[in-house]
Amino acid sequence: MRVLLKLILDCEPDAAWRAIRSPAGLRSVSAPLMVFHSLEPGGFQEQWSEGEHPVRVEGLGVIPLGEQVIAISYPPAQGQTRLVQDTGYGVSGIFTAVKYWEHTMAVAPAHGGGTLYRDQLVFDAGALSPLLWPMYWVFWQYRALRMKALARDW
């Protein structure tokens, strides 16, 4: 199943690029619906490095949802478009229902100024996919609203 976003953000592409490569960016666009806690020694880094990053996730900051691994890579830029990809996986809780996860975020200069932000989630949870899709869609819409609100300050 797939969830897509396409937004124009009121910030420079370099600012959006820093935000989508940042654990603080993830936390700010996800809260308070989902709260991410690093399970790495020393906690979250300033920027995601390529590789695996274990996290614990809570709904509304109090409901344990489980643990997952955020697996970051930086595919080669396509012209002026820069990409971040997460091919992570669930370790415990509700995240183990998803058997395939590919989340790709892209930033590029927008015509007329600002940043063109594109976001695609492709996932497979077998028979549960149609039940999970609406939840992911709602969460992605929430993230979009948060990004639009926060982008001016990036």
How would you sum up this structure in a few lines?
The protein has 3 helices and 8 strands; from the N terminus they run E-H-H-E-E-E-E-E-E-E-H. With 154 residues, the protein is α+β, with helices and mostly antiparallel strands.
What brief labels describe this structure?
154 residues, alpha+beta, Alpha-D-Glucose-1,6-Bisphosphate, Chain A, domain 4, eight-stranded antiparallel beta sheet, 25% helix
List the helices and strands and how they pair.
Layout: E1 2-9, H1 13-20, H2 23-30, E2 34-38, E3 51-59, E4 63-73, E5 82-86, E6 89-90, E7 100-109, E8 115-124, H3 129-150
Antiparallel strand pairs: 1-8, 2-3, 3-4, 4-5, 4-6, 5-7, 7-8
Radius of gyration: 15 Å
Characterize the overall form: globular
The percent of residues in helical segments reads: 10-25%
Please identify the top-level CATH class.
Answer: Alpha Beta
* Tally of DSSP helical segments: 3
Secondary structure: number of strands? 8
Specify the CATH homologous superfamily: START domain
Which structural category fits the helices and strands?
Answer: alpha+beta
According to CATH, the fold-level topology is: Alpha-D-Glucose-1,6-Bisphosphate, Chain A, domain 4
Number of separate structural domains: 1
State the distance separating the first and last CA atoms: 31 Å
- CATH architecture assignment name: 2-Layer Sandwich
* Share of β-strand residues: 35-45%
Major sheet: 8 strands, antiparallel
